[in-house]
C-alpha cells in the first residue's frame, strides 16, 4: 500500500500520485490534449475512469466530455497511457515514462505508423504543417553545416538549393488521421491509421441543425455540416474513431459507431483480450483470437516435432 496518495486538479491537468518507500507513481492527464473520447474509459480494467458530459457554451456549442479518474481505483498500470490516441495521459515511475504492462508483455503498444521521406520534399513546401489539425508537424530547413534556417525567403537561390528539409512530427500525440498525407503534393508522408472502424449518421434520428458532434471533433474534415439539409456528414478517410462525437451525441442511435481494427504490437494476453472486448466489434475480437490460436498451434507443432511449419 502507498504511504501517501494525492489527487490534484487544475484547469489544464489532473494528476494522481502514489508515494511508496522507493517508488513514486504518477498519472497526469493533460486536459489541453484530451478530447473527451471514450477509449481510456473503455480500456481501463479497474473502471477507474469516467466521462462527465459538460454543458454547452453560452454560444450554444457542445464541449468535450470531462474525464475524471478515481484515485482509489487506479493502479497506475498505464493502459490508458498506451491507448490514448492523442497522448493526453502519461504514467511515470520515479519521473520516468515506464509502462509496467508493456515491460511484462501483458499489453501491446499502440502502433503509430508514420513514414516520412524528406528526399521528396520541395524546398518551399509547408503544406503538411499547415494541414495538421493538431499542430503536431514542424517543417524546418538545415544547411549542410547543420545550421537551422528560420527564413528561407531571404536566401539566394543557390543557397536555398543546398538546404535540407526536415519534417518533425510529434508522433506520441498523433492520432494518425492522414490529413497530412492527403495534403502533401509530393507523396512525402505515408500514414497508417491506429484505429479503424465504421461510423454512420442516422438521418432520421439526427436532429436538424444539430452540430454537437462537429463541435467536439478534433480532426478538421472528419465531420462536416451541410447547409442544404442542415445535417452533419462523415468523411471516414480522416476519422480516427476515437468516439468523442458519440459521447456528446444527444440522441440515442443518431450516430452509429464501432471500431473494427486496432493496430498494435504482437502480444498474447488476457488483459488485452478483455480490453479488446470493450473497444472493438465482436468480429474484430473473433479475428484476432483466431489468429492468435492459429499461431499458438503452429508454435506447439514446431516445439513438439522440432521442425518449422512453412
Summarize the topology.
Blueprint: E1 4-9, E2 13-19, E3 24-30, H1 39-43, E4 49-52, E5 66-69, H2 79-83, E6 89-93, E7 96-97, H3 100-103, E8 113-116, H4 127-131, E9 137-142, E10 148-149, H5 157-161, E11 164-169, H6 179-183, E12 189-192, E13 195-201, H7 212-216, E14 223-226, E15 231-234, H8 244-248, E16 255-262, H9 270-279, H10 282-305
Antiparallel strand pairs: 1-2, 2-3, 3-6, 4-5, 6-7, 8-12, 9-10, 9-11, 13-16, 14-15
Task: Please provide a written account of the structure.
By secondary structure, this protein is an alpha+beta fold. The chain folds into four domains: 4-103, Alpha-Beta Plaits (2-Layer Sandwich); 113-192, Alpha-Beta Plaits; 195-262, Alpha-Beta Plaits (2-Layer Sandwich); 270-297, no CATH class. The chain has helices at residues 39-43, 79-83, 100-103, 127-131, 157-161, 179-183, 212-216, 244-248, 270-279, 282-305; strands at residues 4-9, 13-19, 24-30, 49-52, 66-69, 89-93, 96-97, 113-116, 137-142, 148-149, 164-169, 189-192, 195-201, 223-226, 231-234, 255-262. The strands form six sheets. Strands 1-2-3-6-7 form a five-stranded antiparallel β-sheet. Strands 10-9-11 form a three-stranded antiparallel β-sheet. Strands 4-5 form a two-stranded antiparallel ribbon. It starts with a strand and ends in a 5-residue tail after the last helix. The mean pLDDT is 90.
Amino acid at each position: 500500500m502507498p504511504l501517501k496518495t494525492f489527487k490534484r486538479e487544475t484547469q489544464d491537468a489532473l494528476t494522481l500520485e502514489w508515494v511508496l518507500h522507493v517508488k513514486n507513481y504518477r498519472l497526469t492527464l493533460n486536459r489541453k490534449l484530451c478530447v473527451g473520447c471514450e477509449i481510456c474509459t473503455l480500456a481501463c480494467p479497474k473502471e477507474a475512469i469516467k466521462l462527465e458530459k459538460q454543458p454547452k457554451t453560452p454560444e450554444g456549442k457542445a464541449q468535450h466530455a470531462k474525464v475524471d479518474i478515481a484515485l482509489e481505483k487506479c493502479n497506475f498500470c498505464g493502459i490508458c497511457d498506451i491507448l490514448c490516441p492523442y497522448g493526453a495521459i502519461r504514467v511515470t515511475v520515479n519521473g520516468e515514462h515506464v509502462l509496467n504492462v508493456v515491460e511484462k508483455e501483458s499489453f501491446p503498444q499502440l502502433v503509430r505508423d508514420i513514414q516520412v521521406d524528406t528526399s521528396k520534399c520541395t524546398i518551399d513546401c509547408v503544406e503538411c504543417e499547415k494541414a495538421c489539425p493538431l499542430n503536431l508537424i514542424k517543417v524546418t530547413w538545415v544547411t549542410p553545416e547543420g545550421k537551422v534556417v528560420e527564413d528561407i525567403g531571404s536566401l539566394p537561390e543557390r543557397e536555398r538549393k543546398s538546404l535540407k528539409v526536415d519534417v518533425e512530427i510529434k508522433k506520441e500525440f498523433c492520432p494518425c488521421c492522414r490529413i497530412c498525407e492527403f495534403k502533401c503534393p509530393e507523396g512525402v508522408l505515408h500514414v497508417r491509421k491506429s484505429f479503424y472502424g465504421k461510423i454512420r449518421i442516422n438521418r432520421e434520428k439526427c436532429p436538424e441543425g444539430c452540430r454537437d458532434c462537429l463541435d467536439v471533433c478534433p480532426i478538421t474534415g472528419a465531420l462536416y455540416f451541410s447547409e442544404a439539409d442542415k445535417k452533419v456528414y462523415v468523411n471516414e478517410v480522416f476519422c480516427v474513431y476515437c468516439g468523442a462525437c458519440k459521447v456528446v451525441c444527444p440522441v440515442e442511435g443518431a450516430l452509429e459507431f464501432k471500431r473494427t481494427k486496432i493496430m498494435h504490437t504482437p502480444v498474447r494476453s488476457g488483459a488485452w483480450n478483455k480490453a479488446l472486448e470493450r473497444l472493438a466489434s465482436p468480429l474484430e475480437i473473433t479475428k484476432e483470437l483466431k489468429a492468435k490460436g492459429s499461431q499458438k498451434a503452429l508454435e506447439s507443432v514446431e516445439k513438439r516435432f522440432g521442425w518449422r511449419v512453412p
